[in-house]
Amino acid sequence: WFRNNLRVLDNKNLTAACRESDLIIGVYFLDPKLFKIGPQGFRKMEKYRAKFLLETLRDLKLQLEDLNIRLLVYYDEPENLLPGIVKNYKVTSVYHQKEWTRDEALQIKRVKNKLPAPITFKSQYDQFLYEPIHIPFKTFSEIPRVYSGFFYILKGITGHSGRPQYKAQHGRIASDVRNRVENCYVSNSISGYGSQ
């Protein structure tokens, strides 16, 4: 389940999925709520961000095809469609980027509540330069005011100067799953994405 990390090269969750699973299907949900004016008085997504996102999804789709992984993109809330996808493709594990912001964490909770047991959710933080567990500061006052001080403290602790590179291995999609993906009609998929 692709969310905010739309990369292939250093995507920890995609790498884990490729390592631990024989059949992989990528999915992305373009949530209609992003285009509505929220409680803060603005939309989370306007036309330029949406254009960039669609371009990024096209690129992600091509990169995943090189790994033999199909990307399905839907214009709907994930809690509405993911249960059907899980059922149709007999999914046992959902890999996704671990989120820390309120709206994204609530969305994951809503999705988990709609999925049947025993679906396993596997997630890792994948959006930070350093993992939260590597940060040695207990209070904000301990954090250096200048990035270079912060960088050298963390480099000394972690032994590296940033996040390591993770490379996804080729996914294997069995012919029966591939046929189900190709023959599946989804009325609300975005033109050019998903199965039609």
Q: What's the helix-strand series?
A: HEHEHEHEHH
User: Helicity range of the residues?
Assistant: 25-40%
**What structural class do helix, strand and pairing data support?**
alpha/beta
The radius of gyration is 19 Å
Question: Count of helical segments?
Answer: 6
The count of strands amounts to 4
Shape designation: globular
Mean pLDDT: 79
Tell me the major beta sheet: 2 strands, parallel
- Cα separation of the termini: 20 Å
Question: Which spans of ≥5 residues are poorly predicted at pLDDT below 50?
Answer: 170-196
Provide the β-strand percentage band.
Answer: 5-15%
Spatial strand order of the main sheet: 1-2
Task: Explain what the structure shows.
The protein is built from six helices and four strands; from the N terminus they run αβαβαβαβαα. By secondary structure, the protein is an alpha/beta fold. It has a two-stranded parallel sheet with strand order 1-2. The chain has a two-stranded parallel ribbon with strand order 3-4. The model is unreliable at 170-196 (pLDDT under 50).
Secondary structure elements and their pairing?
Layout: H1 12-20, E1 25-29, H2 47-66, E2 70-74, H3 78-88, E3 93-97, H4 102-114, E4 120-124, H5 147-158, H6 175-183
Parallel strand pairs: 1-2, 3-4
Give a nutshell description of this structure.
The chain is α/β, with parallel strands linked by helices and 196 residues long. Helices cover 38% and strands 10% of the residues. The protein has helices spanning 12-20, 47-66, 78-88, 102-114, 147-158, 175-183; strands at residues 25-29, 70-74, 93-97, 120-124.
